[in-house]
Amino acid sequence: MEKSNKTLTYWESAKYILTIVTSNPLFKIVLLPIILLSVLAAKFVVYVLMVVADIDMYFSTSIKKESPEALMIRYMCTPFFHYVIILLNEIIISFFISSIIRQSFCAFTNEYVLVNYDTFHSLGSGQIHAIIQRRLFAIEDFLKLLILNVFHDLTFICIAFYKVYTDIDHRAFYANVLLFIVYLVIMWYIIKMRVYFRLKFNDTYNIVSNKCYSILVNYDVIKSYTNEELELKKLDENLQKVQYQSIIFSCITSFAEFAQKNALVIPNGYILYLALTNTIFTKMNSSSGFLLYNKLFLDVKTRVSKITQDVLKVSQCMTDISDSRIVEAKLDEEYRGINITSFKKSIVFDNVDLYINNLKICIGINLTINKGDKIAIVGKNGSGKSTFLNALLRMREYEGSIQFDDIEMDKISKYSQRNIISYIPQNPGIKEGTILENLKYGKSNISDEKIFDICKEYGSHKIFSNLSEGYHTEAGEMGKYLSGGQKQRVSFIRGVIKNGDIFIYDEHTSNLDSSSQNELIDYIFTSLKFKTSIVILHKQSHLEKFDKIFGFYNGKIRVYNNYNKYLEDHHLY
């Protein structure tokens, strides 16, 4: 299955973001205070401009409407109250935005957890991490720009236009409104162009991010093969594409700035000309009318220019927020279906085909796994062994019939099926936290004492106790403070603690010495003898212990009911 490259339309993006914002529990609480404080702040800006206009009149004409003391008090008080209101508004908005970021972080991460196996892995964890980070930064910038900047400036423009209508000239008001509408239409088309090229930029940047992540994760391999220059060369080749898209994006931004700087000033110059010649807008021909209009217009022009830049940034943020790369991606739908609580009888494959991204890996599978069976799986790399296990874990899609206790497997909820499986993968999947926290990952409500008893039974207590902080030793990111063998011990015990009816082992002993390998394999036939176990193995000496051997070769699975039958074909694997 290919990843989804479909993106949301502009209105779909707006609706998506609106849902995020309005679903926050603080939204209804802060909405009215933010609106009221923004209106008050805008009114005080107009009051400041009126004070400045009155001071200009005081110096430039013989008309003295107020005393110097009164003008001084007005000049000092109006900005002060304006900044107090802005401060209160910013504090409220900061609380709201921090709550949105927290909510969004969980929501964005959950979106990728919910997609199916193929979609998730087609993106790669590096690219997903970069997308989540970009979306979080974007939603923070979006809210700050929209609430603190755009909404505040638009409120001021509305109040300024109203002031022009009531105190200066209603015809000048209509002319400016018409001019503003034309300006918005022009900006709309520029924004659409920016959105298109922003998506192009995001595509190339995601590839670079994944490449960078791959270099950092594979540090040891790159160093050991002395391939630093090769990796950096490949990274730079991808960066050239990012640079190209960035140049196009920047040029469109510069053109938008050029257009918005001229779209208001030149037409308004003609409005002033008509006022100066007494043709129209005659009320602006007085000193007080012209001074107030000019100051309002200059402030409106500045704010419109600022709004344009902010709106362009907002549109970029909207693109980044909604550009999840998983629009219309197939979801895992793990809760849909029949709930099961145990494995009672058998799993029967009837003419089953397995796929990876629409490519057939295994065809015509016919086999039965009975409760309590010990199944060994053998085959060369790429023969479909892990794909087979992933089908049982409901990670991969399949065609044909798989009967799980006489129930068609695709009718069973994935969640309940996975809940009865203990999965011990080749990559142990150690999470940040202590050894104890990692062991409890399979069953969070288990007591520490019970964990210690299980570790003693399965020969791991001494290994964990001898670590620097015992069971409270930090494992580190991806278990970087543990050896390969210690990590696989944690993974094995975690599966035992979960206590599933079915145990699936995907080369779980690959990092262990021979003695430890033999020990963990023996547990399958002793302590775990009543469990159904399916094990990928490479070591031939263990195969004769198993009830059945599934051989993967050339897109087929051969079932051997005893070791002697397997020996006849062992050269194939």
UniProtKB/TrEMBL annotation:
<feature type="transmembrane region" description="Helical">
    <location>
        <begin position="73"/>
        <end position="97"/>
    </location>
</feature>
<dbReference type="InterPro" id="IPR036640">
    <property type="entry name" value="ABC1_TM_sf"/>
</dbReference>
<keyword id="KW-0472">Membrane</keyword>
<dbReference type="InterPro" id="IPR017871">
    <property type="entry name" value="ABC_transporter-like_CS"/>
</dbReference>
<keyword id="KW-1133">Transmembrane helix</keyword>
<dbReference type="GO" id="GO:0005524">
    <property type="term" value="F:ATP binding"/>
</dbReference>
<dbReference type="GO" id="GO:0016887">
    <property type="term" value="F:ATP hydrolysis activity"/>
</dbReference>
<keyword id="KW-0812">Transmembrane</keyword>
<dbReference type="InterPro" id="IPR003593">
    <property type="entry name" value="AAA+_ATPase"/>
</dbReference>
<feature type="domain" description="ABC transporter">
    <location>
        <begin position="347"/>
        <end position="572"/>
    </location>
</feature>
<keyword id="KW-0547">Nucleotide-binding</keyword>
<protein>
    <submittedName>
        <fullName>Abc transporter</fullName>
    </submittedName>
</protein>
<keyword id="KW-0067">ATP-binding</keyword>
<dbReference type="GO" id="GO:0016020">
    <property type="term" value="C:membrane"/>
</dbReference>
<dbReference type="Pfam" id="PF00005">
    <property type="entry name" value="ABC_tran"/>
</dbReference>
<dbReference type="InterPro" id="IPR003439">
    <property type="entry name" value="ABC_transporter-like_ATP-bd"/>
</dbReference>
<feature type="transmembrane region" description="Helical">
    <location>
        <begin position="171"/>
        <end position="191"/>
    </location>
</feature>
<dbReference type="InterPro" id="IPR039421">
    <property type="entry name" value="Type_1_exporter"/>
</dbReference>
<dbReference type="InterPro" id="IPR027417">
    <property type="entry name" value="P-loop_NTPase"/>
</dbReference>
<feature type="transmembrane region" description="Helical">
    <location>
        <begin position="29"/>
        <end position="53"/>
    </location>
</feature>
<dbReference type="GO" id="GO:0042626">
    <property type="term" value="F:ATPase-coupled transmembrane transporter activity"/>
</dbReference>
